[in-house]
Amino acid sequence: MIYEGMAWIFGDDVDTDQIIPARYLTTPDLSLLAPHCLEDLDPEFAGSVGAGDLVVAGRNFGCGSSREHAPGVLKSLGVAAVVAESFARIFYRNGFNLGLPLIQCAEARARVARGERLRLDLKAGRLINLSKGELYSFKPLPKFMMELIEAGGLSALLRGGGWREACESGA
Length: 171
Fold this sequence. Notes:
CATH class of the largest domain: Alpha Beta
Number of helices: 9
Distance between the termini: 19 Å
CATH superfamily of the largest domain: Aconitase, domain 4
Strand content: 15-25%
Radius of gyration: 15 Å
Mean pLDDT: 91
Order of helices and strands: EHHHEHEHEHEEEHHH
Helix content: 25-40%
Strand order of the largest sheet: 4-3-2-1-5-6-7
């Protein structure tokens, strides 16, 4: 899977309350929550992020509460993936369960600037900064995680019967 889009840059310890502030969690409807995504860190983000864009962040992205709304709202806005130095464990699981690719690549946060064009190749483990002509490598995702992403998340995988193949393959 290959994604291409603009980079949106955030720092360390971006918590789930910054991704989607709790004051808006009066509905499970992601389309109503999406306009508030990351508004306290970047008021322009939700209204300007484009389908296929990538969030690039520092350490511990998605820390805080375990709410699924956080990766869900990013995905609903069209964010193709989040690339960070590291992720909070529960956010990492929730992201993949919802079909949002989460990539650990410390070099990206150090080298990528807001607005640069990126191409992410999940299978090859490559992030290419098209604006600078630089290549950053990361460990490719395991097969079962790729299957989660390709299916659109765990629920979609289970509805489609893909769980049977995943269990039989030992994933």
